[in-house]
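TL;DR need structure tokens for one chain.
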Amino acid sequence: MESNLEALLKQFIPGSKWNVKQGKGGVNNTTRFVETAKEKYVLRIYETHRDMDKVKYEHSVLSELEKTGVAFGTPRPVKGIDNQTVKYTEDGRLAALFSYMEGITPVFDKPRQLYSFGLTTAKLTCTLVNIKTELAPVYRPYYEIENTHPKCSVGDVIRFCEMPSPEFTEYKAELLEVAAQLKKFRENLTGLRQLPHQLIHGDLNASNVLADTEGNICAVLDFEFVTEDLRVMELCVCLSEIINMEQTKEALWEKLRAFLEGYGTVLKLTGAEISVIPLLIMLRRLDVFIHFLGRFRDGIDRMDIVIDQMKNVAAQARWLEAHEHKIMAMCCSLVGM
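>> reply
TL;DR here they are.
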């Protein structure tokens, strides 16, 4: 990996001397921090796919976002010597260089941080609704779950869950819950296409934002999955991630309320959108499970990652069954029209 970086960086910042440090990155991509005498950058190597159109669309949205003067930072791709923002590594992977943004990864241990996260989510939603580019989005909406991974049709995943391969048999209870939730989603799909649609980030969580020293969100990162989808899906991705964090029952409800209060100060949703929030919270977890099951089948991820995600589906299904009425009442109160 490191031996290939010199040729790659010469395509972006020729004539510069640089130091490269390993970045934390996410589960989908490789990150390196690059420093020259005058500037700092973040190098990103895409590991999920090798689809140039997906990255070009992401960068086209980022270009339009920068023009809006939005109140928080967003990634700024650097143009290379050929005036393009996407390059190939020597082994055929896609790579991009971004200007460095100051900030720290929040831990979301205080309601005030969740309030800022909700506020930022709503502001981003209100900005993205007006973004138009000449390119067409490549990713499909979440509710078209058949498109999550080419090796994982919904029918195939249900069959796998009901008749797992030997290495997964001890997790039969969790897998049966995944199958049940997939069937439930398919049965309740009707009507989603009539709800408000717009561009959404699609993967907002603590690892994809930066906070300042006061804990306020100051930047939104990683627009890899930006696409046209349900407006309310952005909110549901965030709620699913908050519910998924380890915490006490009291802390969880404080954080959910804080997030929704922040969101609701900027944006209100229709009754029809609020009615599908529990369904879409669950859809986020199902989508993540299928994503990593596909990566496991591709030989990219380990089995334990798939196991963690199936456990997350089962745990969130139990939580929603017990608390759907309360979360719905809170959403109606704080983000309803």
